[in-house]
Specification:
45% helix, 12 helices, NADH Oxidase, alpha+beta, 262 residues, 4-stranded antiparallel β-sheet
Length: 262
């Protein structure tokens, strides 16, 4: 698929085929995409634990379920649990910044050198940053970028994907993660039982309600020519319709198939 169509085709899938296993190579491709994501100071806070549902004990699987995501977790053959490794900055002490200096990504024209990292950047910026109560926020944003790239790669591989938030304390216990790993979201992965359209693109707020130009209250003007171009590229697709009979019928069939209430 072309990139814009991948964005347009992504849906939060909630009906997975529980009996259709996901190829390991496709999970690896998702993780490879996450590894290449942009990351401040080249720290790479993102960590992931891949849980193959059928390798979990019944007790582990039941503990992972939440009232909101219980069925999703049970149906999805693969769960990729994402964490923010808060300890990484002090473990690497600027060494990955030096790698960027060595390959010319951080150039001497901008003041970069190994000495600059050792004498200034790490001791005066990075190390104190980790002691700031707000430290997890920007690093979590970087993990989110990695997760997004993994998510879109899954779509490009023909998989169904969906983000859920599980119980963080349970995740840490079940998978034995280090104390300084903060649990974030989980990407559920599998082949969808529902149609890939899943009723259409989800409702979103109006464009001008979200984005501004120059100052707050001055909307960034939406150009209809661009909208038409993105429709042609399949990034903007048919929106979901309330009470769509076709979608309701699909949900009824899935409910019958899996013995679910309707």
């Amino acid at each position: 698929m072309e990139f814009k169509e991948v964005i347009g085709r992504r849906r939060s899938i909630r009906f997975f085929d529980p009996d259709h296993p996901v190829e390991r190579e496709k999970i690896q491709k998702m993780l490879e995409a996450a590894r290449l994501a942009s990351c401040a100071v080249n720290a790479h806070w993102a960590r992931a634990i891949v849980g193959f549902r059928d390798d979990l004990t019944e007790d582990q699987l039941n503990r992972l379920k939440t009232p909101v995501a219980a069925l999703n977790v049970e149906l999805a053959p693969v769960h990729i649990h994402w964490f923010n490794d808060l300890g990484i900055v002090n473990k690497i002490e600027g060494s990955r910044l030096k790698e960027l200096v060595d390959v010319g990504a951080l150039a001497p024209t901008h003041g970069w050198s190994h000495k600059f990292v050792d004498d200034f950047v790490y001791p005066q910026i990075l190390k104190p940053m980790t002691q700031n109560p707000g430290y997890p926020v920007p690093s979590t944003m970087d993990v989110g970028i990695a997760m997004c790239q993994a998510l879109l790669t899954g779509v490009d591989e023909g998989l169904g994907v969906g983000l859920v938030t599980l119980n963080g304390a349970v995740l840490k216990e079940v998978f034995g993660t280090p104390d300084d790993w903060i649990p974030l979201s989980t990407i559920l992965v599998g082949y969808p039982s529902e149609s890939w359209e899943a009723g259409g693109q989800r409702p979103r707020p109006p464009f001008e309600e979200l984005y501004f130009e120059g100052k707050f209250g001055q909307p960034f003007k939406r150009d209809d020519k661009v909208v038409q171009e993105l429709k042609k590229a399949k990034m903007i697709q048919e929106p979901a319709k309330p009470h769509d009979p076709k979608r309701i019928e699909e949900i009824k069939k899935l409910a019958d198939k899996y013995g679910l209430p309707m």
